[in-house]
Amino acid sequence: MSPQAHVTGWGKYVPQRVLTNNDLAQMVETSDEWITTRTGIAERRIAADDESTSSMAIKAAQKALSVANLNPTQIDLIIVATATPDHAFPSTACLVQDALGATHAAAFDLSAGCSGFVYGLSVAAGLIEAGQYENVLIIGAETLSRITDWDDRATCVLFGDGAGAVILHGNAAEGGVLSGTLGADGSGGELLCVPAGGCKRPPSHETVAEGMHYLTMKGREVFRFAVRIMPSATRKVLEMADLTIEDIDLIVPHQANQRIIASSARSLNLTPERVYSNVARYGNTSAASVPIALCEAVDEGYVHQGDVLVLVGFGAGLTWAATALQWSAPLPTDPQSRTKAVWYKVLYRYAKVRSWIRSLVRKIAAQFTKFRQ
Ligand code: UT7
Asked: 20 to 30 A from 367, CA-CA: which of 43, 245, 280, 348?
């Protein structure tokens, strides 16, 4: 029997700084009333100057590893889903791999907009089921505040920063990831887009002056796409797992807009208690939204062992993805002991020192080669 992919660890990180609707009303022509009624968002988190997608991803990953009781060297693969990587390259996943000291892990970034984390779950589950990997760390992390035009009221009220991570572990037990579906429609690419900064329109004085390095969105069209695709992706993933709507204990949807979440729940005939939402607190954190929501749903007691969950997302691309899974991790989790906390601290310190030594050795070797030439 091929192994099943089970969630054994989860963790989130959100920056300290809270930006409320009233704060935004001081910056652009908007109001708390407009934002709340049109989106359900009350506040969002904004990364500090010294934070970035990798730093938030690392913190979320460290929590997930601690819940899973996993040593970083036991991770086989790290996937970071993000639209706001630290650099074009190296990948954010490689930065995470180095900081964790995950010396046996392969690492890559996954670009699928807000669907990225759910895409990553399917990819990881497939590799686990094929027997290629045993432990995969999947992270959704974003610093959208750095690509937001803070003068554009149509977009700046929607987005926030944060990270969420999950460990998938392969074993023969029943449950875990039951099915997954992925989709794309590139004809809708221009609906959600950062027009410049890539190789088609490299950054220049002109692109920056025109604000082409900021996120642009055709909100109404994305809305129409979202309310159609969320229910259909959910139905498809249930059908693939031989389940029905009645079998779902909780849906964790992409947190873009409370109206989209409510509309999807209505078309699936689901009562609000079976659809998790925290969009009010964090806004749309793109690829980070589903894992952050999953962590909070677990921490708030909405998830129980044996529950059937559907995680579903949509976003830039256009893309969409859904995963059905049966929760197998014991709940509640053990509180982290002092010894365990100290042990992980030592591991991460060691990872830092190891990385520094390796880079120093590389520099010395380069000097030595130059000297010999
Ligand atoms: O992760 C995936 C990414 N994106 C999404 O999921 C977004 C999907 N779309 C949406 O959530 C909604 O379309 C929005 C929340 C973005 C906009 O809501 P809407 O009900 O579709 O509003 P609208 O764009 O049709 O704009 C209605 C009015 C316009 O004024 P006029 O032309 O009717 O006079 C806008 O200029 O609201 C105006 N408006 C605002 N007013 C106050 C737009 N943004 C604001 C604002 N404050 N922040």
From this structure: 348
DSSP H stretches of helix in 12-152: 21-25, 32-39, 53-68, 92-100, 116-129
> 156-205: per-residue pLDDT in tens?
999 999 999 999 999 999 999 999 999 999 999 999 999 999 999 999 99
Q: Which CATH number fits domain 4-326: 2.70.98.40, 1.20.1090.10, 3.40.47.10, 3.30.450.20?
A: 3.40.47.10
Query: Which of 114, 192, 223, 228 to mutate to test ligand 1, by most ligand atoms within 8 A of the CB atom?
Result: 223
SS3 112: coil
Residue 255 C-alpha to ligand 1 middle, in angstroms? 16
pLDDT digits (tens, 9 = 90+) for 137-148: 999 999 999 999
